[in-house]
Amino acid sequence: MAITGILLGWKKNSYDYILPNNRQGITSNLKNWKSLDSLKKAAIQSLSDFSSELETDISRIDIMPDQGIVKFIFKYHYWGVQLDGATAEVLHIGKRRSDFLEELHDGSFLDHFFDSSFSFFKLFYTSIMGFSLILFGISGFWIWYGPQKMRKKKNITLKRKL
């Protein structure tokens, strides 16, 4: 969990390896953009042209008007397509390793693996890890603080005897 947390913290500074950087479209004016349907068709076509083995079911669409781009993230693999919103030109096709790292980090990869719709594994995993972190934090503090408190108590009793 710590390793995936570190990697997720670095995802935007990984030079396209963990998470592809956002590209820049030509305009942020939504009036000049193509319809969402035509952008979706362009994304699916560009992914199919890139690799005919990748499925084209879309998981989500991120619209970023300030950058002039639309990102299409696909459901059954970790690939994404970035298009210019105005021209539907492909700006980038890349593997989104951060999506896998997030699933590994929160345990939801087991729900996908076992096809669990309730997210049982994610809830169980995050609960165990969260409670463990709390327990280790409290016990670590006590292991550090307890001996100090006992030493102070011992020193006070020794001074009283003298």
Kindly describe this structure.
By secondary structure, the protein is α+β, with helices and mostly antiparallel strands. It folds into 2 domains: 2-105, no CATH class; 107-162. 50% of the residues lie in helices and 15% in strands. The protein has 5 helices and 4 strands. The chain has helices at residues 2-9, 36-50, 97-106, 108-113, 120-161; strands at 58-64, 69-74, 79-84, 90-95. Strands 1-2-3-4 form a 4-stranded antiparallel β-sheet, covered by helices on one side. Helix 1 (2-9) packs antiparallel against helix 3. It is elongated, with a radius of gyration of 25 Å.
Describe this structure in a few short sentences.
The chain is of the alpha+beta class and 162 residues long. The chain folds into two domains: 2-105, no CATH class; 107-162. The protein has helices at 2-9, 36-50, 97-106, 108-113, 120-161, and strands at 58-64, 69-74, 79-84, 90-95.
Task: Give structural attributes.
162 residues; alpha+beta; 2 domains; 4-stranded antiparallel beta sheet; 5 helices; 4 strands; 15% strand
